[in-house]
Amino acid sequence: MTENTTNARQAADQRKRAAADWAAAAMGLTDVDLTTVSADASFRRYFRFPAANRSIVLMDAPPEKENSAPFIDIASRLRSAGLKAPAILEFDLDLGFGLLEDFGDTLYRELITRQSAGEIFPDLFAVLEGMAHRVESAGLPHYSETALEKELDLFTDWYLARQRQRSLSSGERATWDQVCRLLTTSALEQPQVFVHRDFHSCNLLQTPDGPGIIDFQDGVRGPVSYDFVSLVWDRYISWPREQLEAWMLEIHAGLPVECSAAEWIRWCDWMGLQRNLKIVGIFARLKHRDGKDGYVEMIPRFYRYLLDVLPLYPEFRDLHLLLEQDSCAP
Predict the structure, then answer these.
(1) What CATH number is associated with residue 75?
(2) Which of 97, 98, 101, 265 has its CA 20 to 30 A from that of 172?
(3) Same domain membership, residue 210 and residue 76
(4) Residues 17-41 pLDDT 10s
């Protein structure tokens, strides 16, 4: 174990003790026994402890690395819209500690299978429709052209350049720039609504009152198709094209969109391309910048999603040919 690793663990242990002391004081207890719930790709950690015949979740979000004000704001927006976000019992933004309602441990990741999806997805589509129709998006950051293109750059900067050590020729760069313009234009021409930005089976929990929504602090005002494609192009189950299109048509009627079914399918496909290019780049960045190697194992699935969709549209022929090259493929 290196000295840096040892120091990081010691700092984490000290912060956990400080969090426990803060939680005990906030709840009027002598002490609390924190049990680790999870950590994620950010610097946030979550713990659980019992208090007053119920379970409480403690969020640890170091303020120098995580701004928790958006989490508090968006939790209020979701709950005001009648959606199941955790109640915030206490939060100290200066310390980066918060006490939240506990939704338990039953992630939809564990519930969604090829056999159960037909029963489960209607409830999740209802959440998507509620977010698009009822969640107030005024004042949230806009999923702007700049933001969308910055995300796309993650693919070339971190996946191609760092993970694959593959630079682009001038012609390939021109192809890439044209793809970015097409994808961002498609995203911006869609109705703009509240977007969770990470709406998938690991951020949804089964509760007695319906799907519980977590990890929404990066929410923005953006393209109406974004959260839907986050859900169906899944990191654990790859759905056949026929099923994806059936779901596209099913949710089309429930969202605030006035377009043909064919245009809606294109919106979903192109939004999925933008998101999946970004995800491949993020997973590479997590390895090379943050030392989190485990996410690289998921790159082939999302790369496959790209190769599945690109051939459907002549506009992306050159990018498809590029990504099929051995020097680019994972």
Answers:
(1) 3.30.200.20
(2) 265
(3) no
(4) 999 999 999 999 999 999 998 766 5
